[in-house]
Amino acid sequence: MIFVTGANGMVGSYLEEVFSGGKLVLTDIDTLDVTDPVKVRNEIKKRKPEFVLHLAAETDVDRCEKEADHAYLTNALGTQNVALACQEAGAVMIYISTAGVFGGGKSEPYTEFDQPDPANIYGRAKWEGEKIVRFLLDRYYIVRAGWMIGGREKDKKFVGKIVRQFGEKDKILAVNDKTGTPTYARDLLEGIKKLITTGYFGLYHMANTGVCSRYDVAVEIGKILGKKTPVEPVPSSVFPLPAPRADSEAMRNYKLELLGVHKMRPWQEALSEYLKNWLQ
Ligand SMILES: NC(=O)c1ccc[n+]([C@@H]2O[C@H](COP(=O)([O-])OP(=O)(O)OC[C@H]3O[C@@H](n4cnc5c(N)ncnc54)[C@H](OP(=O)(O)O)[C@@H]3O)[C@@H](O)[C@H]2O)c1
């Protein structure tokens, strides 16, 4: 059985289709707030899951920057609460981390062997979560995802915003001086489903393949949707934000490649499938 925290979010929206047939226990902030150590411990102890998939997080990077206590409480200590409960219950923990642990400055995509150096509080709190999991547990998978794609109606991230802009604006501005690796939430869960059968515990990067800017993603969305609205590349200074962003958060799934465990598809293919399933 897989016990899930934060199941009402973007990634959680694909759980039932990817793990159909398997037993899932889904919780979110209204049923299990991961910042409550006693409830987390009792709930996991009671359910005795084989795996705990810890999705719960404050994912609003700018809110994390403005409310550091909230960011560390949710993303670092919330993770500690789940890890301690897994330790006691003998459950394997799957912790979703982020490419945001990297600080930029590398010209090649980051691998699992590169040293994190987060550019903002969100990245720092998620990295603290990683360190806690590694310190407390022997049996864990830490899976770093890139720029998340998915969620359909719940899509409050870049892709969702751009899709809506194509219906509303005469011209779309998109940043072209920051790079990353998109990750379709459904593909992430498919990869995790395969990874957790291996017993190869440890840290993994799991993003779709390829490197791009937000501008590239916006252009691709226009192409997939057959829209004529022009997309203009702009520097990130056009959109000043509270949290600094690394110039590159691009990742390579180096350990999955070396082990031959799972191959992720190119981000353009994943984006196309996502938009077709959502909008057609
Ligand atoms: N989104 C991305 O771009 C991205 C990229 C890389 C990695 N990740 C990681 O992937 C995982 C899944 O994120 P996602 O993309 O599915 O984001 P999401 O849509 O924001 O989902 C996170 C879920 O956690 C819930 N949550 C927040 N605080 C909680 C708490 N104290 N207790 C229990 N639940 C809580 C949220 O509820 P509310 O909506 O009510 O706050 C939301 O339902 C996270 O660990 C995230 O750090 C995300």
UniProtKB/TrEMBL annotation:
User: Which GO biological-process labels does this protein carry?
Assistant: dTDP-rhamnose biosynthetic process
- What's the Enzyme Commission number for this chain? 1.1.1.133
Protein name, please? dTDP-4-dehydrorhamnose reductase
The RmlD-like substrate binding domain sits at 2-277
Record GO terms (molecular function): dTDP-4-dehydrorhamnose reductase activity
PANTHER family associated with the record: DTDP-4-DEHYDRORHAMNOSE REDUCTASE, METHIONINE ADENOSYLTRANSFERASE 2 SUBUNIT BETA
Cellular component annotations (GO), alphabetically ordered: cytosol
The UniProt similarity line reads: Belongs to the dTDP-4-dehydrorhamnose reductase family.
Which major enzyme category is it? oxidoreductase
Recorded metabolic or biological pathway in which this protein acts: Carbohydrate biosynthesis; dTDP-L-rhamnose biosynthesis
NADP as UniProt keyword: yes
Q: Keyword set for this entry?
A: NADP, Oxidoreductase
List membrane-spanning regions: none
Judging by the UniProt lineage, the source's domain of life is Bacteria
Role this protein plays: Catalyzes the reduction of dTDP-6-deoxy-L-lyxo-4-hexulose to yield dTDP-L-rhamnose.
Pfam families under this entry? RmlD_sub_bind
Instruction: Identify the taxonomic lineage of the organism of origin.
Output: Bacteria, Candidatus Desantisiibacteriota
InterPro entries linked: dTDP_dehydrorham_reduct, NAD(P)-bd_dom_sf, RmlD-like-bd
> Is NADP one of the keywords UniProt gives this record?
yes
